[in-house]
Design goal:
With 308 residues, the protein is mostly helical. The chain has 13 helices and no strands. It is globular. Pfam families: UbiA.
Length: 308
């Protein structure tokens, strides 16, 4: 059973941490105590992990013919022939069934969002759609899982409201930044453009320069939408913007390192300095939600200079 557990990638469940900001923000916006939803939070996380694993299972099975060109992924169980189609598809359906069954216990909007999560995984991997093969669309379609996770976290607390569009777009662009840095790190690691194109079709059109420019574009988009959200909903949070700028710059630094850890973002927590800083920034943001700084309203009230 180990190969089938391996292709479900339980070590990637760490990515579902992106669900928690949605839960925290919904709790703040609706002034809901955690005692009222902690049970749904646990069920929701388990549901999301199951759906994510279903997406990974189908990903590994279909990608086996391409992963054989990757220096490390060529050792995956699917590439080595340790799994068979019959049991892979059964595992895929079983994980979807578990995920959807758990999602029903949370709420109907949560279940619908989980279905969308699974559909995006299908479109990303399966022909004739297979968006992962299409240049630029590969990053955009994969990173949409970030706002989906945010919405999942939000619907654990409430479904009478939806997250602000500026937050969703900022989260999406932030995910696209992370994904383009991952693409850049993978492209450099493989080293040979012709081999890289066999591993991932979109690499036939990318270059190191285009991937860096793309990541810069997404970082700017994320900062813009994040700024809109902070100014509109909580002016005190503007003070955290330099902290987010450092976070983006630090991740870029990790991405351009030789054999970059950005190739495996699910293991980025092993970069202790980066992890500690992320926790510190989360604490700062939490404090800014709790602290009132009336003086900052001056920047909104005096946004225009008038002539006497």
């Amino acid at each position: 059973m180990h190969p089938y557990l391996e292709i479900a990638r339980p070590d990637h469940w760490f990515k579902n941490v992106f669900l928690l900001p949605g839960t925290a923000l919904a709790a703040v916006f609706t002034q809901t105590s955690i005692e009222l939803f902690w049970g749904k939070l646990i069920i929701g996380i388990l549901s999301t992990c199951a759906i994510a694993s279903a997406n990974y299972v189908i990903n590994e099975w279909i990608d086996a013919q391409f992963d054989k060109y990757h220096p490390i992924k060529k050792n995956r169980a699917s590439v080595l022939g340790k799994v068979t189609a019959r049991w892979v598809y059964l595992e895929y359906l079983l994980l979807l069934g578990i995920g959807f069954s758990l999602a029903r216990l949370v709420s109907t909007p949560f279940l619908v969002t989980e279905i969308i999560f699974s559909v995006m995984g299908f479109l990303y991997n399966v022909k004739p759609f297979r968006t992962k093969d299409r240049v630029y669309l590969d990053v955009i379609s994969e990173s949409i899982n970030n706002p989906i996770r945010l919405v999942l976290g939000w619907f654990i607390v409430t479904h009478s409201l939806i997250p602000p569009s500026s937050l969703l777009l900022g989260y999406w662009a932030g995910g696209a930044f992370l994904m383009s840095i991952k693409r850049y790190a993978e492209y450099r690691f493989i080293g040979k453009p012709d081999i890289a194109g066999l591993y991932r079709r979109s690499f036939k059109f990318y270059t190191e320069t285009s991937l860096l420019v793309l990541s810069f574009f997404y970082a700017n988009c994320s900062a813009f939408f994040l700024g809109v959200f902070l100014v509109k909903y909580r002016i005190e949070l503007v003070l955290s913007l330099p902290g987010f700028a450092i976070l983006f710059a630090w991740y870029l630094y990790l991405g351009i390192k030789s054999d970059s850890p950005a190739q495996k973002p699910e293991h980025i927590y092993r970069e202790k300095g980066f992890t500690y800083y992320t926790i510190f920034l989360a604490i700062v943001v939490s404090l800014l939600f709790a602290i009132e700084i009336p003086g900052l309203n001056w920047f909104l009230e005096n946004a225009f200079i008038t002539q006497e």
